[in-house]
Amino acid sequence: MERIFNIIFIASLISLFAARLFYAFSNTKIFANPLIFILFPYFPGLSLLGGIFGVGGYLLFLKIRKENALPVARISDFFSIAFLISLPVGFLGALLFSKNTLMLKPGALAVAYLIQFIIFIRYFLPRLLNGKFKEGTITYLFLIFFSVTSLISNVFPKFNIHGYLANYENIILLLLLLASVGTLIYLKKRK
Questions:
Q1: Tens digit of pLDDT for each residue in 89-121?
Q2: pTM flag (> 0.90)
Q3: Where are the domains of the chain?
């Protein structure tokens, strides 16, 4: 139990740093002054995709380590479900505390992630616990759902194919989607 708590604590710190780093890549003025990068409460901005990559990188590091005896794939499945329930709460908070009351995007994302959470709890988690899914399957399904939801939500402000593909997060989300689908297919064939 203590090791899992340590994993959660370290993963949250790495996720926070990676989220700020990904956000800094999209806003280059943050790199101009290192104090702005460090003082994120005064200069807010985090990347959700960066946070996911931070946790994913840390869990991948744990999986590769030889002396680690924990089932990292199973832990990542439960991390994915826990993160999926926190997304609607976060987007509802963004909707409630925003100055613009006509923000439909956070509300729509909150509803979309709540529906996805219900699907995961109702259909995918029982199959994992019954042994019908391999460990790690829920993580890849989460990455697929997250990528598709994010790619669709990024289309709505103004659809311009050049602007859409010029955003590095959309390209990373597309690559994440393809890698997750490929890995999920690989896991199914290996079964």
A1: 888 887 887 776 566 778 888 899 999 999 999
A2: no
A3: 1-70, 72-191
With 70 as the cut, is the pLDDT of residue 158 above it? no
SS3 sequence of the chain? CHHHHHHHHHHHHHHHHHHHHHHHHHCCHHHHCHHHHHCCCCCCCCCHHHHHHHHHHHHHHHHHCCCCCCCHHHHHHHHHHHHHHHHHHHHHHHHHCCCCCCCHHHHHHHHHHHHHHHHHHHHHHHHHHCCCCCCCHHHHHHHHHHHHHHHHHHHCCCCCHHHHHHCHHHHHHHHHHHHHHHHHHHHHHHC
End-to-end CA distance of the chain: give it in Å, rounded. Answer: 30
pLDDT at 113: 92
Interacting residues of 177 by C-beta distance below 8 A, sequence separation 6+ = 143, 144, 147, 148, 151
Please report the pLDDT score of residue 38 as a whole number: 75
pLDDT tens for 120-148 read: 999 998 988 898 888 888 999 999 999 99
> In the chain, what is the greatest distance between 2 CA atoms, to the nearest angstrom?
52
Structure tokens at 43: 């200069």
Q: Are residues 83 and 56 in contact, defined by beta-carbon separation less than 8 angstroms? A: no
